[in-house]
Amino acid sequence: MSATRVLILRTAGTNCDLETEHAFSLAGAAVDRVHVRRMFEDPDAMRAYDILALPGGFSYGDDIAAGRLWANEFVHRLRPAMEEFVSCGKPVIGICNGFQALVRAGLLPGDDGLGAQTATLAWNDSGLYECRWTRLRVEPGPCVFTGGTGDVIELPVAHAEGKFAAPDDLYDGLEAAGRVALRYVTADGGEAAYPANPNGSRGGVAGVCNASGTVLGLMPHPERFVTRTQHPRWTRPGAPSVGHGLAIFENAVRYAAERTR
């Protein structure tokens, strides 16, 4: 059986594509990093892939707003290809800047389709670029990337515009449907305030998925913790024995492989 194929789109300002490639490779996938402009030339090439990943960085210098210009390209240059990819049930992950682009393109929360932005990722309450390790609870729900284990994991964040904001009815619907996939928590799993919640997201929202669970966006960086030695306390007793982020990539590869059998 051929390996699951992952397409990592990159553009000017992307800076986490190599780490994301490494993470998916560790998970057993065959990975291609492709500049988004190559996809403009042949959007149908996206059909050859099983998973789409939008990595972190500062696409186009975060001009206008973080991820806005990249999102505009998805809407106006790649819309049919991306809509087909999602409608087929293929997994899509947006990490940090990729999450910002998915939200501003309307693919997340995704209820109104590509081109209809219904939520945003606003400036952190601190007004600062926040870069630190965070604790997250993997919430029960449909997300194919996280598995809804309820575990508390650790992942780093590095962003200035990470506060998930949505109208009350949309936010309440996401909570009720289990579509808040990841949530900032304290060391004992309790409700997090700043700095444990680095951006002030309501309810500690760190990641959300679409209704089917196949599209995930998250502000923390799972690709930065795929081996235990990437943890700042890896030499000390009680440090994590595995990279907590790796499971997110393994879950996606496993899901994609099973759906194509």
Overview of this protein structure:
The chain has seven helices and eleven strands. It has 261 residues and is α/β, with parallel strands linked by helices. The strands form two sheets. A nine-stranded mixed beta sheet has the order 2-1-3-4-11-10-9-6-7, sandwiched between helices. Strand 10 and strand 11 form a beta hairpin. It is globular and about 50 Å long.
Q: Assign the CATH topology.
A: Rossmann fold
What is the total number of structural domains?
1
- The computed structural class is alpha/beta
Strand content: 15-25%
* Outline type: globular
Strand order of the largest sheet: 2-1-3-4-11-10-9-6-7
Task: Assign the CATH class.
Answer: Alpha Beta
Main sheet properties: 9 strands, mixed
Termini separation (Å)? 9 Å
Gist of the model:
By secondary structure, the chain is α/β, with parallel strands linked by helices.
What's the layout of helices and strands?
Elements: E1 5-10, H1 17-26, E2 30-35, H2 36-41, E3 51-54, H3 68-77, H4 79-87, E4 92-95, H5 97-105, E5 120-122, E6 130-138, E7 152-159, E8 163-165, H6 168-176, E9 180-185, E10 205-209, E11 215-218, H7 246-259
Parallel strand pairs: 1-2, 1-3, 3-4, 4-11
Antiparallel strand pairs: 5-8, 6-7, 6-9, 9-10, 10-11
Helix pairs in contact: 3-5
Entry keywords:
single chain, 261 residues, alpha/beta, Rossmann fold, 9-stranded mixed beta sheet, two-stranded antiparallel sheet, globular
